[in-house]
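Person: Please work through this fold.
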Amino acid sequence: MSIAWFVAGWKSGALKRPLVLAATAWVVGLLAAATLSLLFGLARPGAFWRAHPIAPYLAVYAAICAAQSFVLMRQSDRLRPALRTAAWVLTVVFGAVTTAILPGASIFFLIAPGIALLGVAIRARAPKAGLGLIWAAAVVQLLMIVQLLAMLELLLVDGPLWAVAPLASLAVLPFFVEIAPGIDRRAFFVPAAMTLIACVAALLVPRTSSERPGRLSIEYLRDDVAGRSDWAVSNGLAPLPDGWSAFGDWQKVTLRNSMAKRWLAPAPKVDTQQATLAVRSSTAIGAIRKLVVAIDPHGQDTVGIRFAKGVPITAMGLAGKPRSIPASAGKGPTFLRCAGRSCARMLFEIHIKSKGPVIADLIGSLYALPHEGAALRDARPMSHIPQYQPDGSTRIVPVRL
């Protein structure tokens, strides 16, 4: 298929300026979608399209159409046949690259280009039949890619919006190749107006609904290492519900125990349960200390050890089966995590390239808020629920290894 289209493109002269124009229209469509996604994020941070995701996605698609029409309507009508071939050459190139990465994707780039190739081949002898096949190919490609876009929208309900742009820009390109060159330049204002209307709608629709609730998980975090206690809220950093300022001065802070950013507000010091760690053995092997440790969760649902950035951990894992950490690994903190009741019966092995002791964070988490968190939990709107992580309590204590 690719070879046949390249031959057709070479014979029609489409592999030069027309191909550059088709690629430009595709890229400008991507840039329009990416820019709009960025502006959406600045205007309303957080996952504001969860309740009505169709609104911002329609704005992105309209922006792609406006961008492509702006590029292609400036060309003469005489360029249309070569530009048509160039658009389908671009499609099969995109399909070939995608198929090389995801072999199963080839089915989406065989049927429509095949129909279009037949239309181009008979266009000289049977103009109406050839043009009909070319339009049919564009419709088939649009219908097939729309199914992919629908699945992407469902998967990326929280974004990023621009992820649909490569396929969407490719799907509409054959249509604008057929209608844009030579038309009245005022026609550009139609997709531009649609973009503006969709943008306004996307910025006005509610963020969440009872059918599509938003994410809002509450956590009590007591960090004995830092000497502070906080309420932490995970909601994609969307604005907090109305009235929550009464619970404290909320700030966006990166957590030490997970490296994730959360809303944090000071909380009272609650005597929550804490995990404990015991060193069962310590063996020196050259410059490496091999430690075997046991962690008692004391009723916690998950436990873990966090070593700060720069601590020379060379291997870590189950006792007798530690996994090596290559020197090329990232230089951030090192984590070991265990979930479930079986953690109380496990032994863990840690290799440290240090003869002296090191201080680590022992982290225990329980999937329940303390009684002091009841007011926050009750203030959570009905349109929000815990998602990806339940409400819980986390305590961080220092351990010496």
The chain has a mean pLDDT of 86. Residues 127-155 form the longest helix (29 residues). The chain has two domains: 2-204, 216-401.
